[in-house]
Design a protein that fits this description.
The longest helix has 31 residues. The chain has 365 residues and is of the alpha+beta class. It is built from 11 helices and 16 strands. α3 packs across α4. The N and C termini lie far apart (59 Å). It folds into 3 domains: 144 residues, GMP Synthetase, Chain A, domain 3; 85 residues, Beta-Lactamase (2-Layer Sandwich), CATH 3.30.450; 122 residues, no CATH class.
């Protein structure tokens, strides 16, 4: 069952073409109309758009005339306060593509503003989605689209921030030290990685960019190292939070816990860096950051921090700060409440150990 605005349909039956209306309202001359028709036939633009391109009228003029002809309100888009909850009930690309702006809803009705009030398909989609009578207003399409894009950013990023915050809370005191983001046109898939284990955490609906991910970590006041790869319509981001500030008794260091180690007064090199101005950026960071050299007065190889997945082969003693993963005995790795749905339990290992000591402990588990 479809709901619609009956009064608007009655007025639509008495529709006059936009050229005739603009003439009647004194907004164009007969010569303007002829020129607009030629441009319309040449370019394929709608007549109103063709006249606007030629500078004969503005899109606001056309919107105003449409609202008068159909006896529907003309909305000043700049005065609209967006309802994020209402906006979230519709698919982002649908609203932007059709320039449909949800305004407000009651128990049995929803009001929308749209560029083209004759777009019956879009009106039917709104009706099918919300299951209520649709009241249509018109407004400037470019301004509707711009407002939608800004509003979706405000809606989407807080949701992404909340998801990241929930994941961080879940992986504290674990061996997961990297958060991966797979971004496509419909959703963001978030995985965590560490000690050779990849675990999918959640999917967040929406279209997000690399900058959206960066802004999310910004809002959480977390500095990061990152790696990225892009293909048509999708992107991959590997994020290494820098949260562990600890006094290191010696080097090299091996870390395998949430938040890579960021020693005081030492700057990382050989890694992409975002946000921290004192961290240096290299064009070719080592894949997966098997070793992150720190910048000091000493040669770089004397001051090395390794991730547990890329430990040095040497058995020499290192300062170790890792969590050893052990498959959860309760759920056999499937994920349950006792292991926070991670499928593993984690035992801390900290102190002076060799890389061989860590390998032995991990093998035992």
């Amino acid at each position: 069952m479809l709901f619609h605005n009956v009064s608007m349909e009655k007025n639509m039956s008495a529709w006059k073409d936009i050229g005739t209306l603009l003439l009647e309202y004194g907004l164009i001359t007969a010569g303007d109309l002829e020129e607009g028709m030629r441009h319309h036939e040449k370019t394929g633009l709608r007549l109103g758009e063709a006249l606007a391109k030629l500078g004969k009228v503005t899109m606001e003029d056309i919107d105003y005339v449409l609202s008068k002809q159909l006896d529907i309100p003309f909305i000043i888009v700049e005065d609209i306060n967006i309802d994020p909850d209402l906006l979230s009930k519709f698919e982002k690309n649908f609203l932007i593509r059709n320039r449909v702006l949800p305004l407000h809803e009651s128990d049995d009705q929803i009001s929308i503003a749209m560029e083209d009030p004759f777009n019956r398909s879009a009106i039917d989609t709104v009706s099918d989605t919300i299951r209520k009578k649709v009241n249509v207003s018109t407004g400037n399409g470019e301004k509707i689209e711009a407002l939608l894009k800004v509003s979706f950013e405000k809606v989407g990023i807080p949701e992404l921030v909340g998801s990241i915050e929930a994941i961080i809370e879940k992986i504290r005191d674990t061996s997961f030290y990297r958060i991966d983001f797979f971004l496509d046109e419909r959703e963001c898939t978030i995985n965590v990685f560490g000690s050779g284990i990849i675990k999918e955490m959640m999917k967040v609906k929406g279209t997000f960019s690399k900058d959206d991910v960066f802004k999310s970590f910004d809002s959480l006041d977390i500095s990061i190292l990152y790696d990225s790869a892009f293909s048509e319509g999708s992107a991959f981001l590997a994020i290494y939070p820098l949260t562990n500030r600890m006094t290191l008794p010696g080097y090299p260091v091996i870390v395998g816990c949430y938040g890579l180690c960021l020693p005081e007064d030492i700057s990382f090199t050989d890694a992409n860096v975002y946000r921290m101005s004192h961290l240096l950026h290299s064009i070719s960071p080592p894949m997966g950051y098997p070793c992150i050299a720190t910048k000091t007065d000493m040669p770089g190889h004397d001051m090395i921090i390794h991730t547990v997945d890329s430990m040095p082969q040497s058995s020499a003693e290192c300062y170790v700060h890792v969590y050893i993963p052990n498959v959860c005995t309760a759920c056999k790795g499937q994920g349950c409440s006792s292991c926070r749905d991670l499928g593993h339990e984690f035992n801390k290992m900290e102190g002076m150990y060799s890389a061989d000591d860590i390998r032995k402990r991990m093998k035992e588990k």
